[in-house]
Design a protein that fits this description.
The complex is a heterodimer.
Chain A: E1 9-12, H1 17-20, H2 24-31, E2 35-38, H3 44-53, H4 60-72, E3 78-80, E4 83-86, H5 100-107, E5 112-113, E6 116-118, H6 124-134, H7 139-162, E7 170-173, H8 176-179, H9 182-194, E8 199-201, H10 217-228, E9 236-242, H11 246-262, E10 266-271, H12 277-300
Parallel strand pairs in A: 1-2, 1-3, 3-5, 4-6, 7-8, 7-9, 9-10
Helix pairs in contact in A: 2-7, 3-4, 6-7, 9-12, 10-11
Chain B: E1 3-11, E2 15-22, E3 27-34, H1 39-53, E4 58-66, H2 70-77, E5 81-82, H3 85-96, E6 102-106, E7 111-117, E8 120-126, H4 135-144, H5 149-156, H6 170-182, H7 187-205, E9 216-219, H8 226-236, E10 240-241, H9 249-260, E11 278-284, E12 293-299, E13 302-307
Helix pairs in contact in B: 3-9, 5-7, 6-7, 7-8
The chains are: A alpha/beta, B alpha/beta.
Chain lengths: ~300, ~325
Amino acid sequence: MAQKMTIKKVGIPKSLYYFFYPDLWKTFFETLEIEVILSESTSRKTIELASSVAESENCLPIKLFDAHILELIDKVDVLFVPRIISTIKKHCSCPKLSVLPDVARILAPGKVITFEINENKIKLISSLQKFAQELGFSNSIAKKAANRAVNATKKHTEEKEQSKKTEASFFIVSHPYNLYDDYITGPVIKKLKKMNISYEIIEFKKEKRKKDAIRWDTCGEMNDNLFQLDPEKCKGVIQISSFNCGCDSVMLETSRSVLKEKSIPFIVLIIDEHSALAGVDTRLEAFIDSVRWKNEQNCNS
Amino acid sequence: MKKKVYLGVDVGSISINLLVIDSNDTVLFDSYIRGQGNPIAAVQKGLKELEQNIPDDVEISGVCVTGSGRSLIGAVVGADIIKNEIMAHARAAIHLHPDVQTILEIGGQDSKVTIIRDGVVVDFAMNLVCAAGTGSFLDSQAKRLDISIDELSNKSVLSENPTDIAGRCTVFAESDMIHKQQVGHKQEDILMGLCHAMVRNYLSNVCRGKEIKTPILLQGGISANKGIGRAFSEALKADITIPQYNMVMGAFGAALIAKNATIKQTRFRGFDIADHSIATGSFKCKDCSNLCEVIEILDSNEVIGRSGGRCGKWENSYETT
C-alpha cells in the first residue's frame, strides 16, 4: 500500500468533468475526509481570465477549464484532474479530455492528482477505488468512497428524471459542460422563459447503447435522443455548440439530417467568449417565430 | 376622424429606415438614412422628415421597430412591437411576392438567408461572428480603391472577364486585390471579382445546406449594387428579383406587423421627440461577478429605458419579443 498522502483540500474546477458526473467527485473526496473546494461558477471574470491565458484556437469549454484551474491554484493543496478516455463502454471521449492532467500540470506543477477514466478497460467504480488506494487509503475506505460516489451521481440523475414536468415543446441539446454551465446556457433559457416556451434539456445517462451508435460518447447520446424525438410533440430542437468544437464540426451534420428526416425545425447557436447575446436573441426569436407561424398556418388550413 | 397609419422602423448597423403604410398597405412615406454610428440622431432626423412629408389628416396608430438596434430605438420612439429583422423582412417579401421561396438579405454587419415555403418561414441562417460576407466588405474595398459605392455598382457590371479574388477574409481579399491591380487587371474586372468573392463567401458560409429555390428575392442595403445581383444570378444560375422598396424591406415588414397587430392605444411618443435631447449612459452593475454593462437611455435626464445585464433585473421598460 502506498504511503498515505496528507491532502487536506482538493480543488475541483466547475467545468468539463464536473458536469459529466454530477455530485460524484464531491462525494468521493468527502468520504475520504478531504475538503472539497469548488471553483466559482463561470462568470464574466472567468471568461476574461480564460481569453487572456488560453490558446485562442481552443473551444470555449477548454478555455474555461484553464481559468477555473487558475482560480483554484492558491486555495488548495492539490487539484483533481482526471484523464478521460471513455465514459461509456465501446465509446471514446473528445480527445482534448484525454490530456487535461497534462495541461493542468503546466498551469499548476506538482499539484495535480489524476486517474484514468476508461470504461473500455475498467469500470469507473473500480478505477475510483484503485485511485483512492493509490492516494494511500485502505481497501475498505477506498471501496466505500467509490460506491458512495457512483451512487450519488445515480441518485442525482434519478431525481432529475422524476422532477421532469409535463412534456416540453422544445428540446435543447449540447455537451454536458455547455448545458449545465449556467453562464453558457443561461441566456438561452432566460429567453425561452420570456417567450413562454416549454423546453427540455437532454439527459446524459451513460447507458449501454446500440451497436451502430455513434462512438463519440456525448455526441452519440445527443444523436440517440434526437432519433427518439416524436415530431408530433417536439416543435423544435436547439443545439448549442461552441465555436471551434472539433466533435461538433463533424457531428452537426448528422443532427441536421436526423431532424430533417423527421421534419423537426432545427437551429444551431454558436457560442464563444465574446458573449454576443444580441446574436443569440435574434436567432432564437426568429426561430420561435417561424415555428409558431408555421403552426398557425397548419391550424388554419 | 383621422386616418390610421402605421410606422415601421428598421435600425441596422449602417442605416435607419422608416416607412409608413395606411390601412390599405399603401406606402405613404419611406426613407433610408445612413446612421453613421448615431442611431438616435438618425431616427430623430427620420421622424422630422416624416412629419413634414405625410398628410395632416393621418395619425400614427401603431409602431413596430426591427433591426439590430431595435430595443434601443424601440424605447426612444415608443414601439408597440419590437420584432427581429428576419421576420420583418419575410413579412414584406411575402406581401410583395406571395410566391417567394428564398430571401437573400445582406446588410451592413449581418447577412441572412430565409427559406420560405407556402408563404411561411421554414428555415433561416445568419452569418457567424465574421463580417466577411456582409456589406461592410464591399464598403471597405471600395474605400481602398477610392471609389464610391455607386461607382462600384455601375462599373462592376461592365466587366467582361471578372478577376478571381480570394474572398474568404477581407484581409486576404485586400492583399489579393492589390496584387491584381499591380499586375494590370482592369478596374471593372477587379470590382466584379470582388462581388463574386463576396457572393461565393455568402453562399458557402450562410447558405450552406439550404435549398435555394426560385423565386429568389435580394434585399437589404446591398441589393442596390448591380454587381452583386449579377454575381448571385451567375452563381445560382437563376433569376434574381430585386423587389420594390428593396432598401427598406425591413421597415416595410415592420409597418405591416404593426398594422396586423391589435394595438388599442399606441405607445408612440410623438414627432416632437425629434427635438428632445436624448442620450445614452452606462454603468457597471457590481451586484455579482458578471459585472454587466447596463445601458440607460435618457430623455431630458429621465430614464426611459434600460438594457443589458444577464439576470434581467435592469430591463424595466422595454423588452424584445
